[in-house]
UniProtKB/TrEMBL annotation:
It comes from Candidatus Wirthbacteria bacterium CG2_30_54_11. This is Serine aminopeptidase S33 domain-containing protein. InterPro entries: AB_hydrolase_fold, SidJ.
Length: 290
């Protein structure tokens, strides 16, 4: 296995970083891994397992930091005067910025000779799904959707006075105070600016592409998926209010535009601790069938 640090610039000139693991034998297949809400490129233990197992099976693995990594962070931004630090992190994130963050890593994969590119998202695979349906990027071979969190459920279940705070966030954004930190925390103790709270909390927004807890949800976004997709869920998951088996069934039933498979992993939860091998085995098996 060979390992490389990579860095690239988004279209709006934010410097982004990733760690590339390549098999010793040349391959045309790569998995691009995108972290969840306030995570980063090495947050979860399964990332280490994937770097070893994927490369052993002839699959490259690139795990990346998006601008929204960690609760709050700094990234370099290229300006006419040179590079300057700017504050980012989930606390200042806007969901649609995922389009700017995913594309440069797809470009990097292509520049390194990879032609079978899988986008893998954990906890918020919504970003990868949204990228696919918005860009129709024909360089993407498939989607690996690990833990499809129900954002509407999480806001209702874990955020104090959700509806009142959503109104506050909207008012702050509309008055030009979108960077102001909200007076309450999101789940996992995450701070959120008004623009972040509104971006992820608005039921009509792009982040809440579907909801298992909303009886009015039509799953239109999943109907727009046109490439092979794997949905993965553990036995228990705090991020939605229904049985994971049912969540998998719903996702598969509504992803009607492309071949779809599901993977349920028992005896583990959202981060797949102590089930990293089973997670890797299932993903490798699915990739090799494509």
């Amino acid at each position: 296995m060979q390992t490389k640090w990579l860095r690239t610039l988004s279209k709006d000139k934010v410097e982004l970083h990733g760690l590339l693991f390549e098999p010793d034998v040349r391959s045309d297949t790569i998995v691009l891994h995108f972290h969840g809400k306030e995570g980063n490129f090495i947050t979860n233990r399964f990332v280490y397992s994937m770097s070893e197992r994927f490369t052993a099976e002839g699959i490259a693995f690139l795990t990346v930091n998006q601008r929204c990594h960690d609760y709050m962070s700094e990234s370099l931004v290229q300006t006419p005067a040179g590079f300057e630090f700017k504050r980012y992190g989930f606390a200042l994130d806007v969901f649609e910025d995922c389009l700017k963050d995913i594309e440069p890593f797809v470009d990097l994969a292509i520049s390194h000779g990879y032609r079978r590119i899988y986008l893998q998202g954990h906890s918020l695979p919504h970003r990868c799904i949204y990228y696919h349906i918005q860009t129709h990027d024909d360089r993407i071979t498939g989607l690996i959707n690990i833990c499809c969190s129900d954002l509407l459920f999480e806001f209702n279940a874990y955020v104090e006075n959700y509806e009142d705070n959503l109104k506050l966030a909207k008012a702050l954004v509309e008055s030009g105070q979108g960077d102001r930190i909200m007076p309450i925390l999101m789940w996992a103790g995450a701070y959120a600016s008004a623009k972040t709270f509104w971006s992820y909390g608005n039921p009509e927004g792009n982040a809440q592409i579907f909801s298992f807890s909303d009886p009015k949800s039509t799953y239109d976004t999943l109907h727009q998926v046109k490439i092979p997709s794997l949905y993965v869920e553990p036995e228990t998951d705090f991020s939605f209010g229904i049985d994971p088996h049912e969540a998998l069934q719903i996702c598969a039933e509504h992803t009607t535009g492309a071949p779809t498979e599901t993977l349920h992993i028992p005896n583990t939860s959202h981060s797949f601790i102590n089930a990293e091998s089973e997670l890797c085995d299932g993903i490798v098996k699915w990739i090799k069938k494509q």
